[in-house]
Write a structure and sequence with these properties.
Layout: H1 3-18, H2 22-31, H3 37-56, H4 62-88, H5 93-111, H6 113-118
Helix pairs in contact: 1-5, 2-5, 3-4
Length: 119
């Protein structure tokens, strides 16, 4: 993408997302909601993993066991966020933002920066 559009996008990203087509705005809003069983199950899984790790007590030191449990929690949370779109059927916000950016880039290519200012 052209440098001019990239600069414009970085400065006005929030405003452009708010003025995106209704379908993309709605999909972006729904993507962050906890409205499916998969959302709730996946959200609880890192907590269950941390508690199970701490109860099992892999390490003798309680502090070290706690710190390792936190690391396990972060890793599980990251993995859950990677598989969440496949379980819930929702796209992640980054993919939706790419589509919004592509929409406005198309307008930029066809009509120029002045038309983006009107958006």
């Amino acid at each position: 993408m052209e440098k001019e559009f990239e600069n414009y996008w970085s400065v006005h990203q929030k405003r452009l997302i708010e003025r995106a087509p209704a379908a993309l705005r709605e999909e972006r809003k729904e993507s962050g909601r906890m409205n499916t069983a998969g959302d709730w199950i996946l959200e609880a899984f890192p907590i269950v993993a941390v508690v199970a790790f701490m109860n099992y007590g892999f390490v003798g030191s309680e502090l070290l066991n706690f710190l390792l449990a936190l690391v396990v929690g972060v890793i599980v949370f990251t993995l859950i966020n990677l598989i969440k779109p496949y379980v819930t059927g929702k796209r992640n916000i980054g993919e939706i933002d790419k589509d919004i950016k592509a929409h406005f880039y198309k307008i930029y290519q066809e009509q120029g920066l002045n038309e983006l200012e009107k958006q």
